[in-house]
Design a protein that fits this description.
The chain has 2 domains: 86 residues; 125 residues, no CATH class. The chain has an 8-stranded antiparallel β-sheet with strand order 5-6-7-8-9-10-11-12, covered by helices on one side. It has a 4-stranded antiparallel β-sheet with strand order 1-2-3-4, with helices on one face. By secondary structure, the chain is of the alpha+beta class.
């Protein structure tokens, strides 16, 4: 009788512990942060787990400004976005993982101070990344990037300048509407310009899976303002920030 009870107890434990095991092993923000710190500290096992986030440029670079980890709950599963920010923007990294540490995206093209926000729109899962940086020492620029989560991957779908501060004048481009077919923006400019209170439309291109504008009103306006701005540059400029080129890679 005792043996039967013991076997019964062991069977119950065997059923319980496997059920608990996987959830204990699932990723969370604290575990992800610890893995990143270990990889930066030359831990090879942690580096392999991150699948390329910490490359040779970042090994031992613990002088980061911040590590920001945000999460989104998509189809009954958690996903995590990582923003690794440095004073040198060439080292900035953005990545997305699921709760099993499967990699969905790594982006090395973000500049300046970074922030992230997860959002749902018409059953689509989006991540808004805001960059804020200086050009020509004193011109403040914000740039907005939107990423979309898919079943097994994620991708950049929209990128455009959203704000320029020049001589205490603020000009903005704000998103008015997002649909599966287009993104509509409104432009507000506080100086003499032919784009005051105009709108722009970025249509979704199914081949590139990106929202693109044929005119890029605000980006072109900002590029021209930067080119026309006369200033003796003192601070080092970032070669990777080339606003003359297309804002989408």
């Amino acid at each position: 009788m005792i043996i039967k009870l013991l076997l019964f107890a062991l069977t119950i434990l065997a059923l319980l512990f496997p059920a608990c095991g996987p959830s204990d092993e699932n990723l969370n923000s604290a575990k992800l942060r610890e893995t990143i710190l270990q990889a930066l500290d030359r831990n090879q096992e942690a580096n392999v787990k991150l699948k390329g986030l910490i490359d040779t440029e970042l090994i031992s670079r613990i002088d980061f400004n911040s590590i920001r980890i945000d999460s989104g709950y998509v189809n009954k599963k958690y996903y995590y976005s990582v923003l690794l920010e440095y004073s040198d923007p060439l080292l900035n990294r953005f990545a997305i993982y699921d709760d099993q540490l499967r990699l969905y995206l790594i982006d090395k093209s973000l500049n300046g101070n970074l922030s992230a926000e997860w959002a749902q729109k018409d059953n689509r899962n989006l991540i808004f990344i805001q960059e804020r940086f200086l050009t020509k020492d004193v011109l403040n620029i914000d740039r907005l990037s939107i990423y979309e989560m898919y079943d097994t991957t994620a991708g950049l779908v929209y990128r455009s300048i959203s704000r320029l501060v020049k001589d205490k004048n603020t000009s903005t481009q704000t998103i008015e509407n997002i649909s599966s077919d287009f993104i509509a923006t409104k432009i507000s400019v506080n100086i003499n310009s032919n784009i005051i209170n105009q709108t722009d439309t970025f249509y979704f291109n199914s081949d590139s899976r990106k929202y693109l504008s044929s005119i890029n009103l605000f980006d072109d306006f900002v590029k021209q303002e930067i080119e026309d701005f006369r200033w003796v540059i003192i601070k080092p400029q970032i070669p990777s920030i080339d606003l003359k080129n297309s804002p989408l890679p």
